Amino acid sequence: MPTPPSTAAAAAAQHLESLLPRLASLSEYKQFHARLLTSGHLGSHPGLRARFLDRLALSPHPAALPHALLLLRSLPSPATNDLNAALRGLAASPHPARSLLLLAGRLHSCPSPPRPRLDALSLSFALKASARCSDAPTTLQIHALIVRLGVAADVRLLTTLVDSYAKCGDLASARKVFDEMTVRDVATWNALLAGLAQGTEPKLALALFHRLAESFQELPPREEPNELTIVAALSACAQLGSLQDGLYVHEFAKRIGLDRNVRVCNTLIDMYSKCGSLARALDVFHFIKQEDRTLVSYNAAIQAHSMHGHGGDALRLFDEMPKCIEPDEVTYLAVLCGCNHAGLVDDGLRVFKSMRVPPSVKHYGTIVDLLGRSGRLTEAYDTVISMPFPADIVLWQTLLGAAKMHGVVEFAELATSKLAELGSLVDGDYVLLSNVYASKARWTDVGRIRDTMRSNDVRKIPGFSYTEIDGVMHKFINGDKEHLRWQEIYRALEDIVSKISELGYEPETSNVLHDIGEEEKQYALCYHSEKLAIAFGLIATPPGETLRVIKNLRICGDCHVVAKLISKAYGRVIIIRDRARFHQFEDGECSCKDYW
């Protein structure tokens, strides 16, 4: 007896459904598309069609997504699921803005052919696209659509909205949506935490984390913190350099059984390193079982060694990586930075030449710095001009810094000329060239540089430093008198200068403006922000306690000398994190061995 047509069609659709997971090549997708067309299932089975569209749109083959869009445009009456499949694929593609264009096109298209109805999933994919594009105005427009379409009660959709606002940098709107949500889950907390931690509000991220941690026992199961919560909080600690908060988050991770989570451990390594505690960072690395360590684990540990000037240890760890873990561009950059900070020129060149991934401009920049700081400026310059891509501003600034370090006027002028061509108006470029001229007593040229800075309205970036005392961050700027205890700090500085003068200290005034008196030069040096932070640390903490300072610029030569002498005179360990690396001062010596 023949099979009824409806049953036969259902069996055919079921067979096609079973073939979907096996599709791999573009030709197989096209054959499947042809089967849908010839069998009539393209129109009669919208669910199967949508699932095919979804798989096609998310295929890694570069021509698959355009084919999915061609299929969507060919449909006389596309359904919501059809549109969502295309939106999802576009939002995850290298060109997420096209997802937004597709949505806008559907919103503004004429009624014939009928446009599909948007649902929460449509808007969710659009929000993911706007987040990847950092398109805050579009996120705001989608927010308005959410309200207009009456889907504002969807927790997942509002969580995606919080995430999109945060990734677009509109943290105020992200917080407002979060605060107005009557129902949240852990993903909602994580979206806001991650946005605050990675954006401009790491302090607020930590305040939010403390709020979450303190109410942990009363939280419903859906809001209980997970590994992403811990990772976001640790990222905020790393950005702030707040060791005390980092220790608190670590203890909380232990309480909820996440301290053995590899992703959490990797973030702990990074956090402890950036908070100046290399020993704790390495303890966490060794805490991870060898078979559980990932590439990120090794990258974090190598970077920790490198940031703290232990280039030899970074190299050894790099060489000990298991063969099953292939180094990536981050690994190579971390180990090259370690060689750079430790002055290991030959080792750095060996690693660079052995790279199994294409070097980026950052890898070349590290080699230029490595060669330049060791005095091999001609090789550094040859590296810059032989790169397979144009040198950027950072590379020429690197060469300029090396020329300043070694007092080579020719390369300093060349680098400055290239920087001017690229439109760089950073005050440091002019100051470095001015310092090169000053080292050669070419005062007329120094004056010319200062006139150029005035005429181009180049403003000096103010130096500032932070130090954490009893969980409170204290900020200082050069010559600061805003701190409540500034008078005590200034008296402490006078005592410091008196004490370290007995150890042979003489202010290094060679790079201070030449047209002011020697006494004024010494005054300008005395009240640099890192000196103020150290002086405050000395009066605000018990004897013997380690002092930790974070500075936004590179530490100057005079402050470096002073920090070494203070560590000897006061028996303190002083750890300064500047914009390039860590300096650990102890008993009159620095971990950088004066190579920085």
Would you kindly provide a written description of the structure presented here, covering whatever features stand out?
By secondary structure, the protein is mainly α. Among the domains are: about 15-100; about 360-460, Serine Threonine Protein Phosphatase 5, Tetratricopeptide repeat (Alpha Horseshoe), CATH 1.25.40; about 465-590, no CATH class. Helix content is about 65%, strand content about 5%. It has helices at about 5-20, 25-40, 40-45, 45-55, 65-75, 80-90, 95-110, 120-130, 135-150, 155-165, 170-180, 185-200, 200-215, 225-240, 245-255, 260-275, 280-285, 295-305, 310-320, 330-340, 345-355, 360-375, 375-385, 395-405, 410-420, 425-440, 445-455, 485-500, 520-525, 530-540, 555-570, and strands at about 465-470, 470-475, 545-550, 575, 580-585, 590. It has a six-stranded mixed beta sheet, with helices on one face. Strand 5 (about 580-585) and strand 6 (about 590) form a beta hairpin. The protein is globular and about 100 Å long. The chain starts with a helix and ends in a 6-residue tail after the last strand.
Q: How far apart, in Å, are the first and last alpha carbons?
A: 89 Å
Structural class, by secondary structure, is: mainly alpha
Low-pLDDT segments, ≥5 res: 513-520
Q: In which order are the strands of the major sheet placed?
A: 2-1-3-4-5-6
**Shape verdict:** globular
Content of β-strand: under 5%
Major sheet details = 6 strands, mixed
Q: Assign a percent range to the helix content.
A: 55-70%
Query: What is the residue-averaged pLDDT?
Result: 89
- Count of separate DSSP helical elements: 31
Rg from alpha-carbon coordinates: 30 Å
Number of strands: 6
